[in-house]
Amino acid sequence: MKKITLVFLLLFVTLSCLAQGNLPRTYDYDNAGNRILRTTVRLRQEAAVDSDTNFADMSNSKQEPYYEEIVGENYVKVYPNPTKGQVTLQFNKPVKTGRYRLSNMSGKLVLDGAITTSFFTLDLSRYEDGVYLITLSLDGKTDTWKIIKQ
Q: What angle do CA 126, 112, 77 make, to 5 degrees?
């Protein structure tokens, strides 16, 4: 009986560790080098959204990869990433107060504006190829994503 319990426990621990290792994570540090935030990013290869997220407009009929994250009480969907020009931001419910800020990797502010709808598109076609950071502030909560423009 002890052997069966031990084998089951080892199998469970092994599968749990493998499942945890498949999720990309980003970390934020303070000035002293202490880790202050860990964010798990889920990249999905599907156009349909789980029924519990209930996005307002599902005009993304192509099978494009997207990031989905929770900011405050909103599910945020950012796609396509990487992009050749336009990035769509979609929220599962209306935003009361929201702002977006897009900056390049050197910290220069590229775009800044208010979020007034639950679905909008940013046009990056006139900017250089590279990595950009988009910071969303929704109803008092803030999160940042990397956007890759090719």
A: 85
Kindly report the CATH number that applies to the domain delimited by 44-149.
2.60.40.3080
Q: What is the pLDDT of residues 90-147, one digit of tens each?
A: 888 888 888 999 999 999 999 999 988 888 899 999 999 999 999 988 888 888 888 8
Contact in structure between 148 and 131 (CB atoms under 8 Å): yes
Amino acid sitting at position 52: D
Hey, what are 21's tokens? 């290792």
Locus of tokens 């990031």: 67
List the chain domain ranges: 1-40, 44-149
- Residue 15: strand, helix, or coil: helix
